[in-house]
């Protein structure tokens, strides 16, 4: 009688324990799918509002903040329309992402870049409207530097601020190509340019500054409301499971 009582108690404890551990592991899995990740061992930390679109469900990120890893573990941001850039750093407190063009020619992308359909704006406060000119190589006595990655042996491409007095410049052997449709950072034509893009929505910096995490309210991407929550980084799940097995040994 006594023995069977102990046995059934133990059986019940055992099932409660299994259930608890199962529940904890499940909770862990739910939270884990959105935890911070990165591409390879050295990529910048990726967390909300960003997500890795191939590895994490859509509610882990905010619309427009999808990143991916390429085969060489580069962190890839795609901007409209079809501009692939590599991410070097993400500052979650100031809400700035720094990217560069893997082909080292940001100017090549400018004609089709449409930031207004993205979540980002240029962070550089000094911006300029530019007109691009195609000049024969003979005329290199300009006050401006050519854009090396767009120029060839038989032609030089120049970017000239649209409000310059172009008539006073020796542009006789030049033809106008196009005006850039929007203002760009004044130094964007420099070789090996690192582009810094800023986002204002969602405003997760208020969470980040308090050392908290940020996520979608109700895990609902269409809702687009965000909230701060307490994060315990460095393997909370493991600690909870250890607590579970301690309970098993105690009776
Ligand atoms: C990418 O990162 C993974 C995980 O750290 C590593 O095993 C792999 O060798 C890396 N691949 C390259 C091409 O660096
Ligand atoms: C950029 O995208 C916006 C929103 O999708 C669109 O209204 C606008 O026409 C686009 N601009 C260009 C130059 O394509
Ligand atoms: C998400 O939010 C939208 C708009 O508030 C609502 O219509 C929809 O039912 C929500 N979906 C879920 C799964 O809660
Ligand atoms: C996580 O662990 C790393 C190294 O073990 C440590 O540098 C970092 O401060 C820890 N982060 C938190 C939030 O405890």
Describe this structure in words.
The protein is α+β, with helices and mostly antiparallel strands and about 250 residues long. Among the domains are: about 50-125 and about 195-230, no CATH class; about 130-180, no CATH class. It has helices at about 1-30, 105-110, 205-210, 235-250, and strands at about 50, 65-70, 75-80, 85-90, 95-100, 120, 125-130, 130-135, 155-160, 175-180, 185, 195-200, 215, 225-230. A 7-stranded mixed sheet has the order 1-2-3-4-5-12-6, with no helix packed on it. The protein has a 3-stranded antiparallel sheet with strand order 9-8-10, with no helix packed on it. A two-stranded antiparallel ribbon has the order 7-11. β4 (about 85-90) and β5 form a beta hairpin. α1 (about 1-30) packs antiparallel against α4. The longest helix has about 30 residues, at about 1-30. It is elongated, with a radius of gyration of 27 Å. The chain binds 2-acetamido-2-deoxy-beta-D-glucopyranose (4 copies).
Characteristics of this structure?
membrane; alpha+beta; three-stranded antiparallel beta sheet; 4 helices; 21% helix; disordered C terminus; zinc; elongated; zinc-finger; 251 residues; binds 2-acetamido-2-deoxy-beta-D-glucopyranose; seven-stranded mixed beta sheet; single chain; transmembrane helix; transmembrane
Class from secondary-structure proportions: alpha+beta
Assembly annotation: single chain
H and E order: HEEEEEHEEEEEEEHEEH
Largest pleated sheet: 7 strands, mixed
Q: What is the end-to-end distance?
A: 19 Å
Total helices: the number is 4
Q: Spans with pLDDT under 50 lasting ≥5 residues?
A: 17-30, 235-251
Helix content: 10-25%
Beta-strand fraction estimate: 15-25%
Question: What is the CA-atom radius of gyration, in angstroms?
Answer: 27 Å
Give the spatial strand order of the biggest sheet.
Answer: 1-2-3-4-5-12-6
- What form results from the Cα inertia axes? elongated
Bound molecules: 2-acetamido-2-deoxy-beta-D-glucopyranose
The count of DSSP E runs of length 2 or more, i.e. the number of strands, is: 14
Mean pLDDT: 81
